[in-house]
Amino acid sequence: MELTGYLKKHFGFDTFKGNxxxxxxxxxxxxxxxxxxxxxxGKSLCYQLPALIKEGTAIIVSPLIALMKNQVxxxxxxxxxxxxxxxxxxSLSKGEIQRVKxxxxxxxxxxxxxxxxxxxxxxxxxxxxxxxVSFYAIDEAHCISEWGHDFRPEYRRIRPIVEEIGKAPIxxxxxxxxxxxxxxxxxxxGMLQADVFKSSFNRPNLYYEVRPKxxxxxxxxxxxxxxxxxxxxxxCLSRKKVxxxxxxxxxxxxxALAYHAGMDSSTRSGNxxxxxxxxxxxxxxxxxxxxxxxxxxxxxxxHYDVPKSLEGYxxxxxxxxxxxxxxxxxxxxSYKDIQKLEKFMQGKPVAEQEIGRHLLLETxxxxxxxxxxxxxxxxxxxxxxTVDNCENCDNCLNPKEQFEGKDDxxxxxxVVLAVKEYFKADHVASILSGIASYGVKSYKHxxxxxxxxxxDKDVKFWNxxxxxxxxxxxxxxxxxxxxxxxxxxxxxxxxxxxxxxLLVQDHDYDKEEEELTKxxxxxxxxxxxxxxxxxxxxxxxxxxxxxxxxxxxxxxxLEDMAIHYPISIxxxxxxxxxxxxxxxRYGKEFCNLIKSYVDENEIERPIDMVxxxxxxxxxxxxxxxxxxxxxxxxxxxxxxxxxxMNDLLKEIEAIVFSGTKINIDYYINEVLDExxxxxxxxxxxxxxxxxxxxxxxxxxxxxxxSEEDIRLIRIRFLCNEGN
Length: 723
Hints:
By secondary structure, this protein is α/β, with parallel strands linked by helices.
């Protein structure tokens, strides 16, 4: 049968993609084969089809349990025989392992997926010596190389195990490998003579963009809400950030789940399945997610944190748009993140630090470049991209301004040498801009002749110029010694023979992410027509319920509504002084009014909705609510937190105004007799025109009541009548 006949029979396709056919023919001819093919190019088929055609069982070494399960399920879907594909890893019980072995010995199994750790177990090696191995496939082969982005030491033990089990052809496959990594893989697997099949790394449908990491959470919510119903992945470096961000997305009405290696495996695979089955739109994950996950319609990949290497970045962005459709890859970048990653490297073996430093520098170079992102990435993977403007990255669509920086770079190198190559970037930048900081003074560097030679520019500019000099390899950074700057050989050469050096104008990557807080009273100016309509509606509802209008919503809340035009309960909860309780109790009519007003007047709502922050679980409000639930006297709560009673009452009022119901009767009954309680309560119910304490005191008599008495009863009144 022709190869295309087998393809049609087993997979239902009529034609091969790219160079799949040549790769398969090469493997069937018993030749060692090295495959470099970007994500979405159809790597798996290169070993799955020959495994079905050849005699015996193919051993497929794969790094992730989730990936194995995914592929085994897919293969079983194509075949009538469940035993056609199996995996052997730590997740199986003894009984399940026995069933796998029986199917293999019975000749039913054409593909056996194993984790490298399982392959090297002695009992498994002994078992595999009994079977006819058709070939070995090493998937995600970049894991072999210390220069790859996902180095796994156990991968380097594959060759000796292959020798032990029995020789057969090897096919190594990876979606990301620089020329250096490729050589490392082939050398380690003893396949330097292998035939190499390299597909283009260009993914023309992917749009690449790098943004400064300012207000990143808010920006992400905006991107997700502008792509409602589309699937996306957001990558963070730490598990803690993954959980925080997933929770923030959830409270802002986005169907999002977390995924990281610290979760128990059933939750993790459950979350992955929900993403595949489209029960959720967004997965927030560490890099553990998505290796080989075959979801063709991921429409955006966002990096909240910059990855440790460009291989990692390419691999992760490659999960977008695998069907050839839209794929947006947006990264948030702050140089402070790079400094954090450098800190993590301290104390590691010197060789590992060298590699890590080199990979990080490539990432900085990519993030801060003014050149076409696509050209930069492809060059990194040893491929030349000859088009001048790719028309699908931020730098091509909005070119950054560049200017001649030869003199600035020479000044940087001069200062680094003047301080004997013994100081960090911030110190050098301070000297350049003539700032006598504490550190500069303590070394008397404000007296050296180069102090202030660049005082026409600020510290931020000079830090950017230092980074450009690092990227160009004119400077090196000693991470082990706190990041001290040294002039490289290339730098010394540059001082002797300076040439044109273009610096990038747009350099706002130092902006730290601002703390997200809920604005009080809105940031714009309220729509006066809508504001008066909202007041009328509030009046009508108050009349129906026999309550003063302020119980429904206070004026600052209505003002916020007239700025942000909330049209759903979820958006309403984000308004000043409106919590979930208030929004659900009174919000619907207000949302309906705003929606029809927006439609009639064709108002473009600000997409920049107020972002709802996750409640700080250790926060004062939560502590107060829990203490009141336990009937702890209010003065005791105030003392335990070291705050005045007045401030405690302010916090309780904020809790109540936003719609949360609490009960402080136990405390009121201690400090006020029943008659006085009733009198204040009746005043708010029958006479009060506003929530003003001053007016209440004037009406009820300052001799008889204190401000505290009235505030306590007002809290009770708002809880009973409004929440």
